[in-house]
From TrEMBL:
It comes from Kickxella alabastrina. This is Uncharacterized protein. The lineage of its organism: Eukaryota, Fungi, Fungi incertae sedis, Zoopagomycota, Kickxellomycotina.
Length: 241
């Protein structure tokens, strides 16, 4: 799975958010941090205060300021709300993003925000957005999520959290106690299985259709032969008269 495929998957996921101040059609549209801030603000408006949307152009210093603020809030969210050790996360090179629009470094930040979304209190909303995309995008986004979880070491919260923090960690799980990432994986596998079954059914129908069509064509040929024989018989009877 290429970096371009993963980038496309994330851009398509961003496209499911309707309240963005400007359209995002490619990964480089995210380098100023504005759209990413707006996504995070939708996820948790109390924690992420969306920055003022402005056209900062190619001013890398302003981009850098936005990205620093965003990354700080994201890592704090992982630690204070989700209970994960942010020190384990692969820190993106924000300077490379701001100055050079580095796609690899930008994707590191995007991975964090995507994984944050499927672990937040309203995770079903953002899982639903993933499920609304095509199969290839879904697979790419799962790779992104799994890469972040691998950095964290596990899908479990910090064992040293006190009881109040453990209560906050309930946002990790649905009402039935299932890890939302595990639920997403299960739902994706189910959708793939259903797709495979539909494809097999379609293939079976195509085969049946071909068999019926072949029989129909055989009947047409036979009918034409019978017609010709009848015509020959009628001519013979006419000559006999």
């Amino acid at each position: 799975m290429s970096q371009e495929d993963i980038a496309d998957g994330f851009v398509h996921w961003v496209g499911t958010f309707n309240a963005l101040s400007k359209p995002v059609t490619q990964l480089s549209d995210l380098t100023d941090g504005i759209a990413l801030f707006e996504i995070c603000a939708e996820i948790d408006r109390q924690w992420f205060k969306s920055i003022r949307s402005a056209d900062i152009g190619d001013n890398w210093v302003l981009k850098m300021n936005n990205l620093k603020k965003l990354y700080k809030l994201v890592t704090q969210y992982y630690e204070d709300v989700l209970g994960y050790p942010a020190s384990n996360l692969d820190e993106p090179n924000l300077s490379a993003i701001a100055k050079n629009e580095d796609p690899e470094e930008l994707l590191k930040l995007c991975h964090l925000i995507l994984t944050l979304a499927v672990q937040c209190e309203r995770n079903q909303v953002y899982i639903g957005k993933i499920m609304s995309l095509g199969e290839d995008d879904q697979r790419c986004l799962m790779v992104s999520i799994e890469s972040v979880l691998a950095q964290l070491g596990s899908a479990e919260p910090d064992a040293e959290l006190d009881s109040q923090d453990v209560d906050m960690m309930d946002v990790h799980r649905d009402n039935d106690g299932v890890d939302p990432v595990s639920r997403l994986q299960a739902e994706l596998l189910k959708s793939y299985a259903e797709k495979d079954e539909l494809e097999r059914s379609a293939q079976d129908l195509n085969i049946e259709h071909k068999v019926v069509r072949d029989k129909y064509e055989e009947m047409l040929v036979l009918n034409e032969e019978l017609k010709m024989r009848m015509e020959d018989l009628e001519k013979s009877m006419a000559r006999a008269d």
